[in-house]
Amino acid sequence: MRILIAEDETVLCEQIKRALIAEGRAVDVVHDGEEAAFMGGTEPYDLIILDIGLPKRDGISVLKEWRGQGVATPVLILTARDGWTDRVDGLDAGADDYMSKPFHMPELSARVRAMLRRRSGTVNPVFRKGNVEFDTRNNRVTLGGFPVELTSQEAAVLSYLAHNAGRLVSRSELAEHIYEYDNDRDSNTIAVFITRLRKKLGPDFIQTVRGSGYMIDNG
Question: Which pTM does this prediction carry?
C-alpha cells in the first residue's frame, strides 16, 4: 500500500516514514503544499497524511483542490493547532480523519490501518482464505497455523491484493502501489513475486487472468 506524507517538520516526517516503511508501506514524502498538490493529484496513493500548516500552500486549500479534482484518496490531516475549528475545517474540506500534534506513533499507525481497511470495505484486520491467514496489522502470515516468512515486497503484493480481494488487479496497478515515486516500477517483477507467493501459500491462492492481472477471491 502506497502512502504520501506531506509534512514540513523533517524530524517528524522521517519518524512517520520509518514507522510506515516498517509496516511494509511504500512511502513518498513532500515538504510543502505545492508539491503535495501535485503529487496527491497525479499519483495513485492509497492514503495521504497531510499537515495543515504547510509552507507555500496550506493543507486545507490543497485538500479542497484534490476533492474538487475528484481525488477520493483517504486523507488523514495533522494539525499543531489547538482550536477545534481547524479540525472542523479539515473534515469539512474532505478529510477522513485527523490527529493533533504531538501524537503517539502507534496511534497514527493504527489510524492508518483502520483507514486502509475502510477504503477496501474490510472490517476484520485479519484476512482469511482457506488455511491462509494474513494479519494486516503486522504483515504476519500463517499457513495451516504455521508461520510463513515473506520478503517485504512479497508482503506488499499480498497486502494490496488482500485489501482488494474480489477485484482484478493489473500488474501495472500493483507496481504503482508497492513502489515509491523514485523507484523503477518494473511491472515484470510482479510476476516473480506472485510466483513466490504461490509457492509459499499454495498454487491456487492467487488467480491469474491471462493478459489482465491477478486476483484473490473472497471465498
Answer: 0.89
